Write the structure tokens for this entry.
Amino acid sequence: MLQALQAAHRPLAGGRAAAKPLRVLVLGGGGPLGSAVLEALLAQAAGATVGVAVHQPITPALRGLQAVQHDAPNLQAFAPEAAVLVFDRMRHANGRDDAFVRPQPADVLALAQQLFAAGVRQLVVAVPHTTALLPQALLRGLANLDEGAVAALGFGQLVFMRMASDAPEPGDAVLPRVWPQRLADWVLRQMRLMVPNTELPVRHAVVAEVLAHVLYLLPTVPQATRVLPPQLLWHAAQGAQLGPLLKDWLAGSPLPPQPARTRQGLRL
């Protein structure tokens, strides 16, 4: 929340606002990343109208947020110009997130078709990937045929976000009660030794702030399908100025050089 509030006092990346306020719809606003995306979009709204797709009527807790029933008539009535698909994990928060639409990776094409039919022409898809296991060529390319089919639908602006695997943030995890599970988790933590610093997960607030900056900048740049690589998110997590970083990336400039790969210390 602090990062979102701080973002409200910063100008949009590149020093330019969108030509007109957008109507933005978020699908997947209930999980840890999804809720951070909603906060960041509202903090940087610049007059935008932000909606979140729900299965049942709710009263949003965030000021300025609208709940939009996920069906064709309500989507048409909301008339979104831009949308965000967030693939997120559940928080097990006593059912509080059950009202929110929770996209599944297999549904990306069907959801994109539905959004396109509702008038969306700017789409950002947050796709978590374990980047250490991906071939280098896929870090800046489409990951599967579904994403290729989404790109063929005709969106004016389409961005796929690449990020490291979505590890729990402090306070998210619940210690397992059985020792075999604790042992398995300890072994998995040691595998972090094999993951470079540049491909470790970044905090949800950082991902959300980058996503909001990119979304609001899209109307000011040439139409294209882009893949935002995890290295850009890593630079943002290190405190890089988002304005110049995103302006250069959207213009097609290469990302700044990364430090040499280092090994993580052992955690017991």
Remarks:
- The first strand starts at residue 23 and ends at 27.
- The chain has one domain: 2-250.
